[in-house]
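G., the chain you wanted modeled:
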Amino acid sequence: MKKILISIFIFSSSFYLTAQENDFQSWHSMSLKKEINKTTDFNLKAGVRFRENSSLFAKNFIDLRCKKELNKRISVSLGYRYINSSNREFILLKQNRFYFDLNYKNKFSKRLSYSVRNRWQNQTSIYKYERVFRQKFSLEYNVRKTKITPYCAVEYFSNSFDQINKLRSTIALSYPISKDIDIDFAYRMQNEFLVNNPQTIFIFESKISYSLK
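Predicted structure as tokens:
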């Protein structure tokens, strides 16, 4: 696992050096989680994103996901996302995304845990159809005597030709405001490649999560 993570970070850095365009974006979202039983829950998420140094609208979305735990380590999810996005030519696009996740989580130690998420994603719009495989590696550390939980993640995107064309690296902090409400703040770097004028995007992200009883 450590060798995989190190390789991905090196891969990310090499493409960062050759990127032709940079941008700073801000992503914000709110989500509601409802447990159906001990192993199944529904999650409703709404988000908005801004680009061009966070000065222009990039997209907003509504996401609905159902998650089922198969055992203590493995779970599956099925989700749908409706997206309104604005491209570089300021053309508004309506997109539909369907995805299936296979998740695995475990612990290196009492306080250090890791997870792997495999996502198969189909996204459609008027202009195109896109199939993507995404794999995300995450590390989370439970800091002693504090409610703050730092974590980091690396995720790559692979297209239908089995080529990696996007990479995201994230560092973040999670904090429970109350028993039912969590907030997350993250800093993310996203690299594009195998496209004309690839971008390196620096992202500030904020999330609020609320668990319904």
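Residues 2-19 have pLDDT under 50 and may be disordered.

Shout if anything looks off.
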